[in-house]
What does this fold into?
Amino acid sequence: MKVIVDLALCQGHSVCLGEAPEVFDVIEQDDGYPQVKVLLENPPEALREKVLKAARYCPNNVITVLEE
Ligand code: SF4
It folds into this structure.
């Protein structure tokens, strides 16, 4: 599984961090919105449910999960 985030559309809501803190962090920016940082681009299977929830609940719908 591979996690891709469209940073241009991320507005730092931190829903992803709440659902899967092993995979996502949210970093304050000097200008503009906080932005997600993907900590694990290829998360282990054990985190699949959490990653899928993060993608589903991201308010901006900017998290894509690819199967590899
Ligand atoms: S929930 Fe979506 S918009 Fe919010 S920080 Fe995470 S990726 Fe960005």
Q: What stands out?
A: Helices lie at 15-19, 48-57. The beta strands are 2-5, 24-27, 35-38, 63-66.
